[in-house]
Amino acid sequence: MSMNFNRIIYEWYANNKRLLPWRDTRQPYSIWVSEVILQQTRVDQGLDYYYRFLENFPTVFHLAQSSEQQVLSVWKGLGYYSRARNMHATAKMVVDKFDGFFPSNYNDLIVLRGIGPYTAAAVASICGNEPVPVVDGNVIRVFSRIFGLHEPVGSSQGYKKVYQKSLEFIDSHDPGTYNQAVMEFGALLCKPRQPICNECIFQKDCFAYNNNMVTELPVPKGASLKRERFFNYLIFQKPDGSLLMQKRIENDIWKNLWEFPLIEDKRLLSPSEVKHSLLEADKGKLVPAPKDVRHILTHQVIHARYFYVDKLPANTEALVWQHNPLEFGLPVSRMIEKFLETSKMVK
Fold first, then answer.
1. What is the DSSP string of 130-164?
2. How far apart are CA 211 and CA 229, in angstroms?
3. Choice among 11, 35, 130, 184 that is catalytic
4. DSSP 251
5. Among 29, 180, 261, 311, which is least packed, fewest CB within 10 Å?
6. Share of the chain above pLDDT 70, in %
7. pLDDT band of 9, cuts 50, 70, 90
8. What is the C-alpha to C-alpha distance for residues 63 and 74, in angstroms, rounded to an integer?
9. Is 168 known to be catalytic?
10. At 54, is the pLDDT very low, low, confident or very high (cuts 50, 70, 90)?
11. What's the mean per-residue pLDDT of the chain?
12. What's the pLDDT at 225?
């Protein structure tokens, strides 16, 4: 799915985007006005302010030459009046520094008053064709849910993760459309509350949907980072299909639930590293399952890798051979249950 993300989001956007006036222009000044207004209010309310603002200040020269009171009067009702003052100051800077040509590249935009990374990226990608990802609430929500990013909203690590993930997909030929597509998808389908998952084009591959975490992702601002753990599971299976299982008895997650023999380490291991950890009598051919698993709990993230071992262990004390664990109601974690349900090698 990840290789096709931008193609899929482009197709969705082409068929579902709202017809909005700022999408009919590539003029940096108009795009800048729309972006600042939309940081203040919803699209349906922002339309009137957008038309009114451009009617009163059709160019950056008109805005720069107006009085602060005129600007505040047009802005009235939107709140955060410091943003209107910043727009007024920025217009004067553009006239003085850029001879009235509103910049369309990120480096020039980011130094203007009141323009941060989000607005600079939006204007630069839409008007300057610069492949800079936009990271706003919609984008954070879309990437956190689809790709299972669990860093808290507002954290520098969270911003970086979303930015880097979006950078993998942004189209250098038309980055503006890409950025708008992701934001529009977050606004119309992947909503903060009551997302429309039944119509989602990414449903099959969405981490949050498939792990019942749509309401938990993205992680709210201020939430603590989760502890990362790495479980390397060993799957021993007899010819009759019986699996070797052990009970978790420590005061830890999933206490008294059953799982496969486990090697917990600081990372997921390679077959040779797993062999090094096993007794000589237990060593056999190790084949990793095709896909690693990432399972998110309230305070922990479990990374799991499953290894099929073709040689039965010499010592099976405290272990139990279990035939059809799910069918016989053996209590297992949801992570183990999903593996048993989906694995073709486990009967």
1. ------SHHHHHHHHHHHT--SPTT-HHHHHHHHH
2. 18
3. 35
4. S
5. 311
6. 96
7. very high
8. 11
9. no
10. very high
11. 89
12. 60
